[in-house]
Amino acid sequence: MNLRRAIFFAATVSLLALAMLAAPVLAAERAEQNPAETPIGEFFQWLNFFVAFGLVVYAVRRWIAPRLRKRFAAIGQDIADAAAAKAEAERRLGEAERKLARLDLEVAALRAAAEKEAAGEAERLRRATSDEIERISRAARAEMDAAERAARMDLRAMGARLAVERAEALLKKQITADTQAALFRAFVQSLPESAN
After folding, report:
1. I need a surface site. Which of 67, 128, 129, 193 has the fewest CB within 10 A?
2. Would the pTM count as exceeding 0.90?
C-alpha cells in the first residue's frame, strides 16, 4: 500500500516537473520574442530542471529507496529460506532414496530369514515327528511284548491247567484202588529212608 503511494507521488512530481519544463515553451509560442533564448531564460530552464530533478531524487531517496531496500532484503531472505528449504528437501530426498534402496535389501534379508526360519521349523517338526514316531513305536513294541508275555503266561497257565486236568483224568482211568494202595505203601516205606 505504501509502495503504491510512493509510486503515485513520484508520478505526480514527474508530471509537475514536465509541466514546469513545458511552461516556457508554451509561453514562447505566445510572445514574439522567446524569453527562453535569453541567458536568463536559459538559467531558469536549468534551474527548473535541477529543482525537478532534485525533487525526483529526493522522493526516490525518501520514500521509494527504503521500501525497495526492505523489499530487496525480504526477497533476499525468501531466497535464502528457499535455498535452505531446497537443501533440506534434497537431503531428505537423498535419505528417502537411500532408505528405498536399502528397503529392497531389507526385504530380501527378511525373506531369507523367514525362509531359513521356516526351514528350521520344518526340520524341527520333522525331528519331533520322527521322535514321536519312534516313541510310539517303542511303546507299541513294549505293549506287544507285554501282551505276548501275558498271552504266553496265560497259555502256560492254561496248558498247565489242561495238563493237570488231562493227567487227573488219565490217572482216574489208570489208577485203581489196588494201585492206589500199592503207591501209598511205597510212599510210607520211603519215608524212613528220606529222614536219614
Report:
1. 193
2. no
Calpha distance 34→15 (Å, rounded): 24
168-191 pLDDT, tens per residue? Answer: 888 777 777 787 788 788 888 888
Per-residue pLDDT reduced to its tens digit, 119-161? 888 888 889 888 888 998 898 888 888 888 888 888 888 888 8
